[in-house]
Amino acid sequence: MRQQRSPKVAVPQAGAAPAPPGPGTASAPPVPSLPPDPSPPWARGVARVAGAMMVGGAGLNTYMVIARPASYAGMGAWFQGVSPWNLGPLPDLWTATFGRHPRVWVPLVGIGFEATIGALALSRDPRRRVAGLGGIAAFHTGLLGMGLWSWALPWLGVLVPAAVVTARSGAAPSGDGTVRVTG
């Protein structure tokens, strides 16, 4: 029985220039590479973790508002229970908004806002990343108002420096005294 020989295929050698495309084939235009990210790796890591957490939270809220919308009704009282001090009207405000109308408020805040700031924090563009980190810091500042200090303070302790260093690394002074944003 004879074996069929496969046609010889030219294998490019290391360092060799790629062969030009044959007749009738189109070559894709070169993809411009993005400029290197000037922010430090630790700040990008904080943005990745915080952004992923917010996108994950938006996903969880999506599931909860579809499967168990009534679960939001008791959270105002829960916030009061975990808070070390009286939250005043906040538990009642929570009950009047998220508790009574979860299919309105959860998509706006719990899904839309969280997904947007999470996606911005995951962006490769430092300016968008700063906006996302700022939004996540604002979200955690709101959690402070609900008494969740043990969760929000550590996050703010890393979010604020990461946002500041990312913002500063994305701006470079030009020769005429103005600041130009790189990227």
Question: Can you characterise this structure?
Answer:
Keywords: Membrane, Transmembrane, Transmembrane helix. The protein has six helices and two strands. Helix 4 packs across helix 5 and helix 5 packs antiparallel against helix 6. It has one domain. The chain is mostly helical and 183 residues long. The chain has a two-stranded antiparallel ribbon with strand order 1-2.
Q: Secondary-structure blueprint of this entry?
A:
Elements lengths: L40 H27 L7 H8 L7 H10 L2 H20 L4 H20 L3 H21 L1 E3 L5 E3 L2
Antiparallel strand pairs: 1-2
Keywords: Membrane, Transmembrane, Transmembrane helix
Summed up:
The protein is mostly helical and 183 residues long. It is built from six helices and two strands; from the N terminus they run ααααααββ. Strands 1-2 form a two-stranded antiparallel sheet.
Keywords:
two-stranded antiparallel ribbon, elongated, 3% strand, 6 helices, mainly alpha, 183 residues, 58% helix
Strand arrangement in the largest pleated sheet: 1-2
Distance between the termini: 63 Å
Rg (CA only): 25 Å
Q: What's the overall average pLDDT, rounded?
A: 84
How many helices?
6
Q: From the helix content, strand content and strand pairing, which structural class follows?
A: mainly alpha
Strand content: under 5%
